Amino acid sequence: MATLSCDVAIIGAGTAGLSAERRAREAGAKTLLIDPYFAGTTCATVGCMPSKLLIAASDAARAARNAAAFGVTAPPDIDGAGVLERLRRERDRFVRSVHDTIDDIPQANRITGHAAFIGPDRLRLESGDEIATRATVIATGARPAIPGPFRPVTERRLLTNETLFDLPTLPRSVAVIGAGPLGLEMAQALAGLGVRVALFDRTRTPGGLGIPDVARDLCAVLETEMELYLGADTSAEDDGDGVRVTWNDGQSATFEALLVAAGRPPALDGLDPGRAGLRTDDSGVPVFDPGSLQCGDAPVFIAGDANAHRPLLHEASAEGAIAGENAARYPDVSAGHRTVAFAITFSRPEIALVGRRDTDELLSASCRWGGRGRARIEAQEHGAGCLFAEKDGRLAGAEICAPGAEHLGHLLAWAVERGMSAGDMLDMPFYHPTIEEGLRPALRALCRQSATARPWDRDDQDRPGSC
C-alpha cells in the first residue's frame, strides 16, 4: 500500500471538479483529481447537450407540423433511429471536447478510482492506497433518483436521463414521472417527435413555476401535446410487454416505457463524510457555507451538484472555482462572488427563473405575450410572466414562461446583477416588433408602483393587441 500526498484532492471530474482542479493548480497547489471513470461531464454525456439535441429534433418536427398555419404543407416523417443516431453522434463530439480538457491535466495529477474519507485530511482509494492532503473538494455530482413506487419496473423498461439517449429508436409511448425541468423538457421533446406521452407530477405546477397565471399558460400548451396529470400520486409495475402506471383513485394506463425524472440527489455513497468529522443534513449532504463552500471548519469543500444548492452547469463551474481557490489557500478561506440565481427550462414555451420572487416582500407586475404583434406573426400567442422589484424600483427577479424566455431571462438577470431599476430598463431601446417589447407593460407597472416613478412612466402604452 502506498501513501500519496498533495495540497488539494478533488473527488469527481465533472464540471465542478474540473473547475476546482484548474483553479487550485493555478493557485500553485499540487492537485490530485480522482474519478472512477473520467467519462466526461454530466452536461456533455447525459444532460444539457443530448437533451438539447433531442429538443432540437422535436422543434424541427413541430415546425413542420405547424407549418399549415402559414399556408405551408409539410407533414413530418420522423425516423426515430435517425433522430437518436444524430443525437449520439453530436453528443460524442461534445464528450470528446471534455476529454481533451481532461487530457490537458498532467497524468500524474489524475487517479482512476473511488475515494473515501478516513480522516479530515486523509483519503483511502479502493486499491488500498491512501492520500494525505491539506484540503479536499467534494465534486461527485448527482445521480437519478428512483423512488420506491417505480422500482418494480424492470431495468429494460425503466429510463432515466442516463439511459434515454442510448435507445436504438424512439419508443411508441412513454409515461414521464416528474414535471420538473428535466421531465418537462423530455416529455415535450418526445411528444413533438410523435411519441404518445403522459406527464405525471405530485405537484400542481410544472417546471418549478410559482405564479398561477404563468403556470396556467404552460399547462394549456402541454394539454394540447400530451396527457397531463398534476397532483397525481403515482406508482408503476411491469405489465406484459409494457409498464402499467396507476395514479390517484385507481386510474391506470399502459406504456411502452417509463421515464423517471424525479430528481437527482447528490452522489455521496461510499464517501463516508462522518470520518472527516463532517456534519450532514437529513439528506446526508455535508453542511456547508454557501459563500465559501467550506464544510464546517474542516479542510473540506463541496461544489456543484454534490451540494444540491444550485444544481446547474454554470453554477457548478463557479462553485468549483470558489472551492478550488479556497482549498488551495486553506485555512485562509473567503466567500466567493455569486451571480444572481438564474435557471432556464427549455420547454416550449421556455421558462426563465431569475433572482428573488418573493411575492409578499416585493413589488410585482405581470406581462403577457398573447395578442402582441410578434406573437401573432409567429403563431405563438401564448406566454406570461411576472417581474419583481424592490420598493425603490430596482429589479429583483422574474418568472417568465414565453417564447424566447431564454433570452428575456438573460436580459433580466443582467439587469438584476447590475442593480438596474425598471426605469433604467425602459431607458434602453426596444426594437419593434420583438418579443422583448412584451416586458414593457410590466416594467411600466413597476415604475408606477415604486417611489421613483417619473411622469413618462405613467403613460399607458403597449396595451396587448396593439401592433
Automatic annotation (TrEMBL):
Transmembrane segments annotated in the record for this chain: none
Signal peptide range: none
GO molecular function: flavin adenine dinucleotide binding; NAD(P)H dehydrogenase (quinone) activity
Pyridine nucleotide-disulphide oxidoreductase dimerisation domain: residues covered: 344-440
Cofactor: FAD
SUPFAM superfamilies for the chain: FAD/NAD(P)-binding domain, FAD/NAD-linked reductases, dimerisation (C-terminal) domain
UniProt superkingdom: Bacteria
Pfam families per record: Pyr_redox_2 (PF07992), Pyr_redox_dim (PF02852)
FAD/NAD(P)-binding domain boundaries: 7-320
Keyword Nucleotide-binding part of the UniProt annotation: no
Entry keywords, A to Z: FAD, Flavoprotein
NCBIfam families for this protein: PRK06292.1-1
The protein's name in its UniProt record: Dihydrolipoamide dehydrogenase
Species assigned in the record: Lutimaribacter pacificus
